[in-house]
Specification:
The chain has 69 residues and is α+β, with helices and mostly antiparallel strands. It has two helices and four strands. GO terms for molecular function: metal ion binding.
């Protein structure tokens, strides 16, 4: 299992709710969380069969920015 981290603009509970269905339906994602207390709003994703670019694209489709760190 890989762990990916992204700097995002997902900065509140409503933002997390908005991105939740997109990340939850992504095949291979086991677990994810957003640290909204961190100034970089770090999204951490643990996944088996998905790559960082796919995760970034999914977050962008949900209307947010994501850059791997």
């Amino acid at each position: 299992m890989e762990t990916y981290k992204f700097k995002t603009n997902i900065n509140c509970g409503n933002c997390v709710k908005a991105v939740t269905p997109h990340l939850n339906k992504l095949e291979g994602v086991q677990e994810w969380k957003v640290d909204t207390d961190n100034p970089d709003k770090v999204l951490e994703v643990k996944a088996d069969a998905v790559d960082a670019q796919t995760i970034e694209n999914t977050v962008k489709k949900a209307g947010f920015e994501a850059a791997q760190i």
